[in-house]
Amino acid sequence: MKKEQSDVQGVYQKLQDWLENTKDNEVRSIIEVVEQAKAILHAAEQIPEQQVKQFIANLKYDLSDFYQQYQADVKHSVYLDVLNESLWANLAQITDKSQVEWTELMDDFQHQDGYHVGDYVGFGQLQCQTCQHCVTYNHANVVTECISCGGKDFQRLSLTP
Prior knowledge:
Layout: H1 2-46, H2 49-75, H3 78-93, H4 97-110, E1 115-116, E2 120-121, E3 124-128, E4 134-137, E5 141-142, E6 153-157
Antiparallel strand pairs: 1-6, 2-5, 3-4, 3-6
């Protein structure tokens, strides 16, 4: 019984020490931030207004340029494409396929003559009508040409629940 009390007291002591340490560090951190803010304000008072405006304009330009470059990099990132597709594939594995079939059935009625390049397809597998190559779609996407033969016409295959 004494051992258990000793263990509990040790935990409480560690918690108390941590709280005191946090309180001391938080106060020091706040004081440091205030001092840094004072130094920045003092330095800013020494800079002419025109230089401040030019700095802000340059910063906005740099941020805009960075954003545009980032968007271009993201659009052409093979890694992010693979990550995105693997996420959709994992979600597809845990999906109730019979429910998806009912949802896709209405879309299939609108595509009685099949799917063509440029059409939107939901979840499922399309088979090229020219070479029988199958392409699996794990999320809504635009139908593209068959990678095997360049075919433009597809039929959606039923999912196996």
